[in-house]
Write a structure and sequence with these properties.
single chain; alpha/beta; Rossmann fold; pyruvate-formate lyase- activating enzyme; 2 domains; nine-stranded mixed sheet; five-stranded mixed sheet; 17 helices; globular; binds iron/sulfur cluster
């Protein structure tokens, strides 16, 4: 484990994210005077870096080289300016130490397009946005172009939504056929949890009924059923779930109704008929890769042929808005493997393609795999991102949403591409936080978005959250508490 010592418990998230972006193989821990460290060996480990915050300056020592930054307007900078100046100093120091420039510069948040979008809404032109991203955050020219293009498109797509009096609905089904090696979502193998599905759906039904009452009078714009893999449920269970969902909420205003049928091994003609019958407009059939060896390695337990068959089955069932997800940087995959996956998807011609950079999460089995095989076996690069981007362009798609996660391979991004008109509005909403999202089911997070106008006419947005417990058994047992959390937030 690599240790960074700091004399202040400040900016720990930013330090961790940025240092990890420069040194992805490090298992990093930041020790401050407030850290409680029981492990003596950890306390005695020689730090790889030391941070010393003073009154008007901060010193970062790396490899015995001390770099010091002094605030010229000491004492007069706002907390925000102070933090931004620190992030710039940290980035420039690490850039000098490593000789590496990161594509997204010192941006560590998950929504880089939000900066461009907010500046656009405040009246900035594209040159001003580009200059800000370049000079204040060291973002590469290519990412600046991508960020601005997406923000422009998002703004146009979201213009049809009801920000103030509308909302979107998320339903989480936390069951999957098996657990993928990289999974960090609430997901339980359906085989082992079969006996609790009925209880889960009953608890969900109660949560739907109670919260629908709380949202009465508001316009439901989009609905997304995710998880997990919702199509892990049987056709009968799906039919009952969708039937009660539609009789509980007013679907008269819904502009988009998505169901993730993520895993090819969960899709059947009967389930697709149920989804069509209940008016689902958009569906995801996610290969992640079209290389069999990788599918086996990541534990998806289905074949490439099953993905192809599931796609054709979905098309035949009448779906004209099919998304496919792929992941770049999967264990052992080369750029040739990515190119072969993209080629295979070109033949299928989905309406949208979501390109993820592999993210290594704490809970995922992938961490252990990397421990044994090394981080270099999971690498995503600008070059492979470009292969996917060119593939999307060849399918007539344009990028329409983007987000980042912690510990992403290559410190890159996830990008959603689609052909004109076939975007996933919900995907943008969850990132841009423009509208309240009512989220039901285990592990879901409800966000209340309030738009405020101050007396001087300035506008601001307040975002408040409440979470449901992640464990299925806990969710079932504590459903009344989950409902009350929402009542406290939403009414
Ligand atoms: S399909 Fe998705 S939710 Fe299910 S185990 Fe795999 S990564 Fe997790």
């Amino acid at each position: 484990m690599q240790i960074i010592k700091s004399n202040r418990a400040q900016f720990e998230y930013e330090i961790h994210a940025l240092v990890k972006a420069f040194y992805p193989a490090w298992d990093l821990k930041i020790l401050t005077p407030e850290s409680s460290v029981k492990d003596r060996r950890l306390r005695e480990t020689e730090p790889v870096m030391e941070l010393e915050f003073g009154e008007n300056e901060v010193t970062l020592t790396v490899n015995a080289d001390a770099h010091t930054y002094t605030w010229c307007s000491a004492g007069a900078v706002s907390p925000r300016e102070y933090k931004e100046a620190f992030q710039r100093f940290l980035y420039e120091t690490l850039q000098e130490e490593t000789g590496i420039s990161l594509p997204w510069g010192n941006l560590t948040g998950i929504r880089p397009t939000k900066i461009a979008m907010t500046m656009m809404e405040e009246g900035a032109d594209e040159q001003e946005i580009a200059a800000f991203l370049r000079e204040k955050h060291f973002v590469s020219e290519e990412k600046i172009r991508l960020g601005i293009e997406i923000a422009r498109r998002e703004k146009e797509i979201l213009s049809v939504l009801h920000y103030e009096d509308g909302y979107s609905l998320y339903i989480g089904i936390p069951f999957c056929p098996t657990t993928c090696l990289y999974c960090s979502f609430p997901s339980y193998p359906i085989g082992a949890w079969k006996d609790r599905v009925a209880d889960y759906l009953a608890a969900l039904q109660k949560e739907m009924e109670e919260t629908a009452r709380m949202m009465r009078g508001r316009i439901l714009d989009t609905v997304y059923i995710g998880g997990g893999t919702p199509t892990s449920l049987s056709a009968g269970e799906l039919d009952r779930l969708l039937g009660s969902l539609k009789s509980t909420f007013d679907f008269g205003t819904v502009q988009e109704f998505t169901v993730e049928a993520g895993r090819a091994d969960s899709i059947t003609e009967e389930k697709l008929r149920v989804l069509r019958c209940h008016g689902v407009t958009r569906i995801s059939v996610n290969p992640q890769t079209m290389k069999q060896e990788t599918l086996d390695l990541i534990g998806r337990r289905h074949t490439v042929q099953q993905v192809v068959d599931a796609f054709h089955m979905t098309r035949k069932a009448g779906f004209d808005n099919i998304n496919m997800d792929i992941i770049l940087g999967l264990p052992g995959e080369t750029k040739e493997d990515v190119a072969a996956t993209v080629e295979a998807l070109l033949v299928l011609a989905p309406e949208s393609l979501t390109v993820h950079s592999l993210a290594v999460k704490k809970a995922a089995g992938l961490r252990q795999w990397i421990g044994r095989n090394g981080i270099d076996a999971c690498s995503n690069t600008e070059e492979t991102m470009q292969i996917a981007a060119l593939g999307a362009a060849a399918m007539g798609m344009k990028p329409y949403y983007l987000y980042r996660q912690k510990n992403m391979s290559g410190n890159l991004e996830n990008v959603g591409y689609c052909v004109p008109g076939k975007y996933g509005i919900y995907n943008i909403l969850i990132m841009e936080e423009k509208q309240t999202i009512l989220a039901l089911g285990a592990g879901s997070i409800t966000k209340r978005v309030s738009h405020r106008t101050a007396e001087d006419g300035s506008e601001s947005v307040l975002i408040e959250r409440c979470e449901n417990v992640k464990e299925v058994a806990q969710y079932i047992e504590r459903i009344d508490e989950m409902i009350e959390r929402k009542r406290a937030l939403l009414t």
